[in-house]
Amino acid sequence: MPEESTEPTTEELAAGTATGTADGGAADADAGEGAGGGGGEGAGGGGVALARRRSLLVTVVVAAVVLSAGGIGAATLVKSPAERAAAQGPPPADVLTAPVEYRVLKDSVVLRGTVRADQTVEITAVSAGGGDAVRAVVTRTPLREGAAVKAGSVLVEISGRPLFALQGTLPAYRDLKPGARGADVTQFQRALTRLGHGTAPDPEGTFGAGTERALAAFYASRGYEPLPARPDGAAELTAAERAVTQAERTWQDAPKGKQRSRAAEDLAAAKAELAALEAVDGPMLPAAEVVFLRGIPARVDRLGTRVGAEAGPGAELLTVSAGDLVVQGRIGPEQRDLVRAGQRVEILSEATGTTAEGTVTTVSEAADQGDGESQDAGDGSGEGSGGGYVVLVKPGKRLPAGLSGQDVRLTVTAGSSKKKVLIVPVAAISAGADGKSVVTVYGAGGKRHRTEVATSTTGDGFVAVRPLGGARLHKGDRVIVGVTGGENAGPDSGENAG
Questions:
Q1: CA distances from 469 to 407, 431, 450 (A)
Q2: Would the keyword Translocase be found if you checked this record's keyword annotation (predicted)?
Q3: What angle do CA 152, 154, 156 make, to 5 degrees?
Q4: What are the φ and ψ backbone dihedral angles of 138, each rounded to 5 degrees?
Q5: What are the helix (H) ranges across 222-358?
Q6: What are the tens digits of pLDDT across the range 68-106?
Q7: Can you tell me the distance from the alpha carbon of 374 to that of 110, in angstroms, rounded to the nearest whole number?
Q8: Fewer Cβ within 10 Å of end Cβ, the chain: N or C?
Q9: How far apart are CA 461 and CA 425, in angstroms?
Q10: Phi-psi category of 470—alpha, beta or left, where left has phi over 0 and alpha has psi -120 to 50?
Q11: Could you tell me if 357 and 398 are in contact, meaning their C-beta atoms sit under 8 angstroms apart?
Q12: Range 41-63 average pLDDT
């Protein structure tokens, strides 16, 4: 026979649940009496388990309802930024104002510049040297980069011959020999005199015996001997002297009369030839042995050679800077008409805080295509314009030597109102339907009124104004330059006609 199941059937569970609900104690007693001890206990245990299951089910359902309600509430409260902006509408308008000022109005051009010496000389070898040299070789470099160059200094020595630095503005373009005349001779004589070697009794501009002696003394003070003006001059001079001696003897021995007269003529000719040779013979200053610098002392910027290096014509030797410091900048084509010689310039070194006043001395006529862009401050510099115009600025006072090579800011005053005027930002000017220029004054309590003005000088974002028609405009008044926010943004939005 099949085993009887000990688990209560569905009907029994339902009956037990109903009985337990009506009267728990009676159901327990009736079950014990009808079914025996074991059957009654089994039926009672099933009722308790069912009750626990129902209680758990109810709890789960309630929790689900609560969570669903919370999710709906959260979805109602959380909104995207776009939804919130749409719900709020446009923000309130905010009026932007600026004060009316009373001052001198200047129009400025700002650019970058580099401090450099007034004269920069790149020195190259000119010839193979004098004397017995058969090769041009650097034999001495007495100066190093950054060293000071004094008047009479030896810059470099090539094949045993010196290259001197002397003060002067004219470059050496010819050998200066006895008998030479000109402005370059005057410059050389003055340079020798400053070094303590006077050239008297020679007049300025004439290379005579006094200049010869001064030249020889200068070379000797530096440990060198000057080169002769004529390589074969000594032999020619000796021969001329002998000719004079012979002519004197012939004249003395000649009898009176025609022979003595002719002997006198020959003697005079011999003496004239000797004098001519003496006038052009003597020491000279070769162009290859001197560099004239405008400012002394100068500085060695770069040493481009070394002892033993070849120094043929055109070989790089060294670069020297001389003269007072100046500033060189560059402007773009759109600023060319704004900057001209004579304008005032403010020089500022951001690195050191040094400021100085200067003047524009020159502006190049043609654009410099070498850099391909302008060295301006980044606000309308003409960068990418294919070049720039070189601007040279001369400081009013001597700049500190430490600024050499530094990048500085140049502010050029391109125009000025000359005297104090009422000015407002350019953005404050508006034009009505009648074409008149007006500014809108923003008064107390937000009251606005329009004031017709005449405009004149502009600069740095400002314009000089003069009220018309008896209207008043004072320093410190607030004028509208713009409106932010709202649906109608503009300087004149919502204004009241004045």
A1: 50, 16, 12
A2: no
A3: 155
A4: -70, 120
A5: 233-253, 258-280
A6: 555 544 444 555 655 665 555 555 668 899 999 999 988
A7: 12
A8: N
A9: 6
A10: left
A11: no
A12: 54
